[in-house]
Amino acid sequence: MLLKQKGTPSAITFFLDDVYQITDTGIGQASIGMTFGRLKSILYGKAQFKDVELGIGMKAKAVIIDNDVQYYILYPSFKTLENTDPISLLVTNNTRYKTKEGIRPKQLIRDVENVYGDASLSYNDTLKNEEKIHFNKAPQSLWFSRYNTPKAGMYASTNTSKFTRDYKEGSVILFIGVKRP
Question: Counting beta carbons within 10 angstroms of the beta carbon of residue 65, is it exposed (0 to 12), middle (13 to 18) or buried (19 or more)?
Answer without folding.
Answer: middle
